[in-house]
Design goal:
The chain contains no helices and 15 strands. The protein is mainly beta. The strands form three sheets. Strands 1, 3, 4, 5, 8, 13, 14 and 15 form an eight-stranded mixed β-sheet that branches. Strands 7-6-9-12 form a four-stranded antiparallel β-sheet, with no helix packed on it. The chain is globular, with a radius of gyration of 15 Å.
Length: 150
């Protein structure tokens, strides 16, 4: 998982996890696959701290996306800011890239976690199966021409 320093933080009372939580199992996202009305069981859903998918800026389409199964490159924004009931923070994360072989019916969340103990943020992508169980975590890659994992 990527770790970085927080530039500004106020009033931490525990760990602040900032994510795209609340995405229901039937919630539809912006289709990046070009097919109309693809069943949710046939697509992968991506949400969270996302700026690019497969080299395309997707910020104008919201925060929840539908993709066909297969290998995808997900990029994050350069700067992050988040807040919770008792805390807020900003950080310069740089553009991070995740290379993920996405599976039909699975959800992928690029999440930012803020730890008060170390005043650091951690960024990772978690993969959940159709039952909602976390089955994998994906870390950012530094290779400019990465291959998709098997």
């Amino acid at each position: 998982m990527w770790r970085g320093r927080i530039w500004a933080a106020l009033g931490f009372l525990g760990t602040l996890s900032v994510c795209g939580c609340g995405v229901g199992s039937r919630t539809r996202g912006h289709p990046l696959h070009g097919r109309a009305n693809e069943p949710l069981s046939a697509i992968a859903r991506l949400h969270g701290y996302v700026e690019q998918v497969d080299g395309e800026n997707v910020t104008q389409h919201g925060h929840l996306f539908e993709l066909l199964p297969g290998c995808h490159v997900v990029g994050t924004p350069r700067t992050w800011g988040g807040s919770g009931p008792d805390a807020s923070a900003t950080a310069e994360t740089g553009h991070l890239r995740f290379v993920i072989r996405m599976r039909a019916g699975h959800d992928y969340e690029v999440r930012v976690m803020v730890s008060d103990a170390l005043h650091r943020i951690e960024i990772e992508t978690i993969e959940k199966d159709p039952t909602g169980e976390v089955v994998a975590k994906h870390l950012p890659v530094s290779d400019p021409n990465p291959e998709c994992p098997d």
